[in-house]
């Protein structure tokens, strides 16, 4: 039982939560909460260490099975006081686990015929990245390409906001030029969400292999994507604002692709 927040193991856990450089160096990331840990395990990730506060932990068959397979020292019992120190939020049922990350390169990505791909360029806020992953998962997207990332994909806020979609989706991190070349080589149409020189999204065909590209909250899309695009699309606005949050915009576009594909299958 660890009852002090000064314990080296607890300090390492806090450092993994706070420092993207350490996550990259070690290839480890932190998942907080029973639901999130269960989804991570279900997607094939294997926990390296599980920090468990038994006094508040909820029973979980998936976790029970993983705990039995942990190496010696892999299960770390912590006191409620220490748990309060290391937990980012309440209601996570006394479980914080450390997992090893996967290969996030384009070389590892295999796509089906006529894929639906979401591309993010330079999205800054971890919570937005997590929300975008949730939308992609809900729409049944085949992959998410995170280009020129300005936030660590395994940032605790991204992990939390994705509600497990980060684990179940094929997610690749790369440069924009690499993603453009990858999509062009496979004949996947590139549709860029932008205000200039664009047509309403619902008038553009999304029934074939399609990549929907959204840009950062502050800068939008870079010129490379605008030039590479097969079509520029926008969401018509009727109010006083001229843009939506990037995660809301992506959700609208993704589910338009779903609608078109479902209609196409009927015909």
Describe this entry's structure for a reader.
This protein is of the alpha/beta class and 267 residues long. It folds into 2 domains: 8-100, 60s Ribosomal Protein L30, Chain: A; 106-266, SPOUT methyltransferase, trefoil knot domain (Alpha/beta knot, 3-Layer(aba) Sandwich). Helices cover 39% and strands 19% of the residues. It has 11 helices and 11 strands. It has a 7-stranded parallel sheet, with helices on both faces. Helix 6 links the parallel strand 5 (116-121) and strand 6. Helix 6 (126-138) packs parallel to helix 7 (156-162) and helix 6 runs parallel beside helix 11. The longest helix is centred in the C-terminal third of the chain and has 21 residues, at 246-266. It starts with 7 loop residues before the first helix and ends with a helix. The model has no long low-confidence stretch (mean pLDDT 90).
How many distinct domains? 2
Number of helices: 11
Q: Supply the helix-strand structural class.
A: alpha/beta
Fraction of helical residues: 25-40%
Q: What amount of the residues lies in strands?
A: 15-25%
- The Cα radius of gyration reads 20 Å
Shape: elongated
CATH architecture of the largest domain: 3-Layer(aba) Sandwich
Per the CATH scheme, the topology name of the largest domain is: Alpha/beta knot
Cα-to-Cα separation, first versus last residue: 63 Å
The spatial strand order of the largest sheet comes to 7-6-5-10-8-11-9
Helix/strand order: HHEHEHEHEEHEHHEHEEEHEH
Main β-sheet, in a few words?
7 strands, parallel
State the fourth-level CATH superfamily of the largest domain: SPOUT methyltransferase, trefoil knot domain
Reading off the top of the CATH hierarchy, the class of the largest domain is best stated as Alpha Beta
| Overall strand count | 11
Given as residue ranges, the uncertain stretches (5+ residues, pLDDT < 50) are none
Average of the residue pLDDT scores: 90
């Amino acid at each position: 039982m660890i009852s002090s927040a000064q314990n080296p193991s607890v300090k390492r856990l806090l450092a993994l939560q706070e420092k993207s450089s350490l996550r990259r160096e070690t290839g480890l990331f932190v998942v907080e909460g029973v639901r999130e840990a269960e989804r991570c395990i279900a997607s094939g990730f294997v926990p390296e260490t599980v920090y468990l506060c038994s006094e508040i932990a909820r029973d979980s068959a998936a976790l029970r099975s993983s705990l039995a397979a942990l190496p010696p020292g892999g299960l770390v019992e912590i006191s409620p006081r220490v748990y309060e120190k290391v937990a980012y939020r309440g209601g996570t049922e006394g479980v914080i686990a450390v997992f090893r990350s996967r290969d996030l390169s384009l070389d590892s990505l295999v796509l089906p015929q006529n894929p639906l791909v979401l591309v993010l360029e330079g999205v800054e806020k971890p919570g937005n990245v997590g929300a975008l992953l949730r939308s992609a998962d809900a729409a049944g997207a085949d992959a998410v390409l995170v280009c020129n990332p300005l936030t660590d994909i395994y940032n605790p806020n991204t992990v939390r906001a994705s509600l497990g979609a980060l684990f179940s989706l094929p997610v690749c991190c790369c440069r924009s030029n690499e993603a453009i070349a990858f999509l062009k080589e496979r004949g996947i149409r590139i549709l860029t969400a932008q205000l200039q020189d664009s047509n309403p999204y619902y008038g553009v065909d999304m029934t074939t292999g399609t990549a929907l590209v959204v840009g950062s909250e502050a800068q939008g899309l870079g010129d490379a994507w605008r030039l590479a695009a097969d079509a520029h699309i926008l969401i018509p606005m009727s109010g006083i604002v001229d843009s939506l949050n990037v995660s809301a915009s992506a959700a609208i576009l993704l589910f338009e692709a779903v609608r078109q594909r479902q209609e196409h299958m009927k015909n």
